[in-house]
Amino acid sequence: MFRYYKMANKMTALSTRVLLLATTLFAVAMPLHAQATFHVGAARRDITPTEALPMWGYGDRHDALSQGTLDPLYAAAMVIKAGENKLAIVGLDLGRSPNEKSLQRIRQRIKAEAGIEFSFIAGSHTHHGPVLELSDEDGKGKGRFDAAIQYYKQLEDGIIAAIVEANSKLAPAKLASGIFKIDGYNRNRHTKIEPKPVDRDLGLLRFDDATGKPIAVIVNYTAHPTSIPAATLKYSADFVGAMKAAIEKETGAQAIFMQGASGDQSTDRKDKDYQAYGQALAQEALKFLATMKAKDVASPSLQVREDRFTFSSRTDFANPMVKQLFAKAFFPELIPNFIDEYANGIRPRLTVALLNNEIAFVGASGEFFANHAIRLKERVRGPQVFFFGYANGYHQYFPTIEAVSEGGYGADNAVSPVEVGAGEKLMNTALVWIYQMLGKIKTGN
């Protein structure tokens, strides 16, 4: 009996050692399943047109062609991998994001080539980039503006190359984020009613590698890049280019600018030089970046939701007199493309991402008035909110209801065809989505 008991003990000990060895081997073989990871990569491409194209942003230029370049236009991209999900964030030195067909081609390719399903692709809103609304059809650009249409392929390839390279550079990363108040850099250009809404937030995110070296910096600020006269027919990133260059020189990181809700927000500096303004804004950002400590992300996660919405139009594009007025205000080939875009109503896109349950990105495809973003940030309790305007499409101005009641540029239907209250509905939707992602509102409630 004693010998049997001793043998049984030996067998039990052996079984325990085998089990422990198997468990250890399983843990070594499957570390990615046991713990989510946080990775980041960044890259950029020059997307400056090589030919003379009609320029975007000022109607009184009509179809005048560009006459050279003041400074290059870039697509600055980063890819975030949180757990198993990836998100591309791309800041473009353009007036808007690519048109719908281009956007879909870009998204299809980055999904196929890099496994990236979700993206914010946004314009800085410089008024010294090329027109992006023409199409390869008679009366819509074909023949007269073939170079502009061919540029779209160059643009798509540049954006895709930047994203794919950023994805290839994915590496373990740390994160620092903050939203800071700065005065004297922007103003409300629309309302005459006091107090005038002004978004003073300078949003910053810095992504460092494991050694503490910065990989990428996102700057989220709200001001129209219209510092250069309309009569200057040369490509320029406006103040955004100078700002990014100063940050990149100081930090060594890829700087990405994401415009805010700047529909009614202009720059506000005594020094009107766009480079001086950009460098001054960069110094504000660098001052705060120096105080931010990047930390390991303990529980990486990424949730993304996106949808397109349909609103009625305040502008009757089917009316021949309306067509004629718009053709005169801009140029004839643009107008049929607007009519095609709005044939089934105004269809803006809303994209919301929640990163690590701590940071919310809200992207909308138009020029939203500042109070939309200000009020959304006030209503989100917990996560920091970064509002990205001109993202994933472009559907002109989205004024607040009270701005429409006051009237004026940006609020009337000449440049804001969307129905009154559309911006408020989209911001309410974004708020609900964020709380659903946080688990504070059950889906379906």
Looking at this protein, list some descriptive labels.
445 residues, alpha+beta, four-stranded mixed β-sheet, 33% helix, globular
Structural features, described:
The protein is α+β, with helices and mostly antiparallel strands and 445 residues long. The chain has one domain. Helices cover 33% and strands 23% of the residues. The strands form four sheets. Strands 1, 2, 3, 4, 5, 7, 8, 9 and 11 form a nine-stranded mixed sheet that branches. It has a four-stranded mixed sheet with strand order 12-13-14-16, covered by helices on one side. A two-stranded antiparallel sheet has the order 6-10. It is globular.
Bin the strand percentage: 15-25%
Number of helices: 11
Task: Count structural domains.
Answer: 1
Please state the CA-atom Rg, rounded to the nearest Å: 25 Å
In terms of per-residue confidence, which ranges show pLDDT below 50 for 5 or more consecutive residues? 1-34
The first-to-last residue Cα distance is 67 Å
Shape: globular
Number of strands: 17
